[in-house]
Each structure stands twice: as structure tokens, then as C-alpha cells.
């Protein structure tokens, strides 16, 4: 008996909402190196379409959606919403430990060069690079924040991770074609 959604190939994109698309694009393109691909215009409805299909207040307006490609990995779908009515404010950015908290991890070949790049762009860096242990031995990682407060992570393990030595199946690696 097959498990999971039939025909699944992998993650096509990660979608997230930003307060200002132009600011986000500057960060995504100039700092992260994402490539703008295409844009979709405004979306709103006079009925409950937004609530039924997207799970937001029916009066919410999508101002614009922009799509980006980031290296050899998932695409990014970036939204700018206008809340549905003045009595319904947008919630703040969740922290990693909150329900719905998240971060986007970007694999880099050279952690030190990547950190220097972030510093040159005056990106807020959280702490120092951390060397993983146990099954992830061989990996270094570091969190940083976008201008709107979303957390990202640099991760690097050019020599592989400890678990890979005798693993029958390995995690997908953006620097390799497939395993």
C-alpha cells in the first residue's frame, strides 16, 4: 500500500507574506541572490472566495504576488496582503518557537564567505556559527533576519554529515543532483 500523496515529487515553492514587496525584493535579490521570475497582480473578491480558498478574512486583498528562483532548490512565492478591514490587524511575525514559527535554510558551500557577504550587507546575524553534533556532525549553521524580521539560516556541510556514513537513504542536498 502506497503512503503519502500519489505522484509527489517534492516541494515546488515556499510562500510567505511580507509587509513591503519592494523591500523584500531588494533583500531577496541583492542579498540572497534570488532571481525574479514573474509577478501576479491584485486579487480580491466580493464573496467568500478568499476565506474558502486561502483561509483569510473574505475582505482581504492580495496586493501582489512575486515569484523567485533561489539557486537549486524550492521557488519562493512572496505575497503582500492588505488586511480585510481596518478592525482586523495583521499578526506579528511568529518567532521560531511559536506555533507556525519557521525559518528558511539556505545551503552554502563556504559558510565564512556567506557570513562576510551578510555582514557587508548589514544583515542582522544571530550569534556565531554553530557546529552540529551527533548525526549532524560535520554541519555548521547560523541564523539571520530579513529586514522585516523573518528568520533565515545558513547551513553548510561540504564534507557531509555523520549520519550519511551508513545511511540507506539520505536527506536531499541542494548541491547534488539526486541520491
Helix content: 10-25%
Report low-confidence residues grouped into runs of 5 or more: none
Q: What Rg, in angstroms, do the CA atoms define?
A: 19 Å
What structural category characterises the helix and strand content? alpha/beta
Q: In one word, what is the shape? A: globular
Count of helical segments? Answer: 3
Can you tell me the CATH topology of the largest domain? Answer: 2,3-Dihydroxybiphenyl 1,2-Dioxygenase, domain 1
How is the largest sheet built, in terms of strand order? 1-4-3-2
Distance between the termini: 23 Å
Percent of sequence in beta strands: 25-35%
| Count of discrete structural domains | 2
Note the run of SSEs as H and E.
EHEHEEEHEEE
Average pLDDT metric: 90
CATH class of the largest domain: Alpha Beta
Proper CATH architecture of the largest domain: Roll
Counting DSSP E segments of at least 2 residues, the number of strands comes to: 8
Largest sheet: 4 strands, mixed
Question: At the fourth CATH level, what is the homologous superfamily of the largest domain?
Answer: 2,3-Dihydroxybiphenyl 1,2-Dioxygenase, domain 1
Tell me about this structure.
- This protein folds into 2 domains: 11-85, 2,3-Dihydroxybiphenyl 1,2-Dioxygenase, domain 1 (Roll), CATH 3.10.180; 95-174, 2,3-Dihydroxybiphenyl 1,2-Dioxygenase, domain 1, CATH 3.10.180.10.
- Helix content is 15%, strand content 29%.
- β7 and β8 (151-156) form a beta hairpin.
- The radius of gyration is 19 Å and the shape is globular.
- It starts with 12 loop residues before the first strand and ends in a 23-residue tail after the last strand.
- It has helices at residues 21-31, 49-54, 111-120; strands at 13-17, 35-40, 61-69, 75-82, 104-107, 124-131, 140-145, 151-156.
- A 4-stranded mixed beta sheet has the order 1-4-3-2, with helices on one face. It has a 4-stranded mixed beta sheet with strand order 5-8-7-6, covered by helices on one side.
- The chain is of the alpha/beta class and 179 residues long.
- The model has no long low-confidence stretch (mean pLDDT 90).
- The protein contains 3 helices and 8 strands.
Amino acid at each position: 500500500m502506497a503512503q503519502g500523496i500519489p505522484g509527489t515529487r517534492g516541494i515546488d515553492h515556499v510562500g510567505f507574506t511580507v509587509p513591503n514587496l519592494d523591500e523584500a525584493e531588494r533583500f531577496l535579490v541583492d542579498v540572497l541572490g534570488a532571481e525574479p521570475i514573474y509577478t501576479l497582480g491584485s486579487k480580491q473578491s466580493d464573496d467568500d472566495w478568499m476565506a474558502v480558498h486561502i483561509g483569510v478574512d473574505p475582505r482581504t486583498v492580495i496586493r501582489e504576488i512575486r515569484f523567485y528562483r533561489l539557486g537549486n532548490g524550492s521557488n519562493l512565492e512572496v505575497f503582500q496582503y492588505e488586511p480585510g478591514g481596518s478592525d482586523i490587524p495583521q499578526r506579528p511575525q511568529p518567532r521560531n518557537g511559536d506555533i507556525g514559527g519557521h525559518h528558511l535554510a539556505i545551503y552554502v558551500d563556504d559558510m565564512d564567505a556567506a557570513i562576510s557577504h551578510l555582514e557587508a550587507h548589514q544583515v542582522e546575524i544571530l550569534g556565531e556559527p554553530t557546529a552540529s553534533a551527533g548525526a549532524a556532525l560535520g554541519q555548521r549553521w547560523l541564523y539571520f533576519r530579513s529586514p522585516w524580521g523573518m528568520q533565515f539560516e545558513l547551513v553548510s556541510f561540504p564534507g557531509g554529515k555523520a549520519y550519511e556514513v551508513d545511511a540507506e537513504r539520505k536527506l536531499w542536498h541542494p548541491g547534488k543532483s539526486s541520491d
